[in-house]
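Sequence in, structure out. First:
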Amino acid sequence: MRKLVLTLTGIAFSLSLFATGDSLSYLTAKDTIFLKLDEFGYSIFSHQLERGQTMYSLAKFYGIKLDVLYNFNTQLPTDGTVAPGATVNVVIPDSAIVDWKMAWPRKNFVPVFYTVKHGDTFYKVAKTYFGIQPDTLKARIRLANTSLKTGQRIQVGWLSTMGIPEAMQAVNRNTLGLKMLALQQAFNGEKTVKVPRFQNGAAYWQREKKGGTDYYALHRTAPVGSVIQVSNPLRKKTVYAKVIAKIPDQAYGDDIVVVLSPSVAKLLGAKDPKFFVEIKYFEFVKE
């Protein structure tokens, strides 16, 4: 039986089987979903594309904006060349996971499990991860006690084989891509009133710092408070960041054109503290 494996970054757990559906369906009644959490605390699963499936149709099935889907898959090219067999991370909102009483008829739903990691508590899994009352989850899975073991699989609910409505994704409190989407919209809003500027050079980021979810940058000339577009041509990745301050004159060498937060650098696929980027931003020009 093919299995749909939901993966969360940062957990050392290996599953080799994927439920891929077929050219008509992304989820079938035979699938079982195994959830984990990524480093930001977002619920995602890894789907392996089959022939006839595309990033666009996958995004539509799960109610995700296409650019948001790419934000969760910085390892994939954004030029439409994602081929069958590629693994795609898809975010799901907690509200899409329903209680067994709502999962009817059963043939239209697949079971959703969470794999316990080191440090998890029953309260954290229930309340923090999935927004479920601990007593409700305990009754749902018929646990004698709430002690958890690393690697233990807990069924947290059911997911519809019909996909996820876009409205449900829109209110997902954990959607990483919504922040990036807002920055992109702000950047595009400046096109009609300001003059574009282009720049190439070295970006710097502190690799040892945790990523977080803040998308910010320091720049020498872009207006503070504006949004810049940053591209990594080597990885074919483009993201957006808010300029929160100027680059201090004495803190970095002249070769550094932008200082990025770890979250932005990671989305660009950066491996080294310094890497080449292409920048675009807008500014007013005095007449």
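Second:
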Amino acid sequence: MERIESTLCFGGRQEVWQHASTTLGCEMRLGIYLPPASSGRRLPVLYWLSGLTCSEQNFITKAGAQRYAAEHDVILVAPDTSPRGQGVANDEAYDLGQGASFYLNAAAEPWAAHYRMHDYIVDELAALIDRSFPTTGARSIFGHSMGGHGALVVALKNPGAFKSVSAFSPIVAPSLVPWGEKALGAYLGPDRQAWQAWDACALIASAPERLPLLVDQGTADQFLALQLRPELLEKACAAVGHPLELRMQPGYDHSYYFIASFIGEHIAYHARALG
């Protein structure tokens, strides 16, 4: 790991690190906020997964999360949204390729060699963070849009790995909406049955752990009706009794202004679960 940025923020340090990922086969960057308390004791970690077109920079510069992480004594980790670099498959569209990994393990070419973000987040990155920073080993996860999808799926597919999960404006049923149909078709191939392993609404039915879900969704979100469809998650959870708190926030859109408005509540929610 090489530290390439470090800035004092609310008494802690907002840093950016890079490392060579063996899972993804490329250099990866990640933002890490170390609150003041991390200088004297081990702390839990809260992972943030960003949305389409984002890098590690969007969350750390726009969400205003550091203040709340300092108050609640949690380390924040915000990885990049995909593998990057020469030799990594890409597409000219904003919603496929670099910056648009959908946090899955690709099975189809030319994506399979590098696009294994699920394994990167759950295995390689988690181990790297615990090895490199003063953590307790306790983890929670949240995210936005594509990253909200990623957070829900990662938590559902790995029972016991995370103490809590939440999402802003998540793509809850990617197998049924245009963004997801494009990405899952490219990364996994045409077999729609294989897509179900990366669809939160599909995973709910057989989830071995009933980890409560907290979801905030703006009612003025321009992607609400076509791409996000939170009512599908509500229906899936109701069918099996999976705990869900879906908060429809009047007048809010899809932007980081929305995230910044409620990020403090989400970090407090995770801090309670992380103990």
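Remark: The mean pLDDT is 98.
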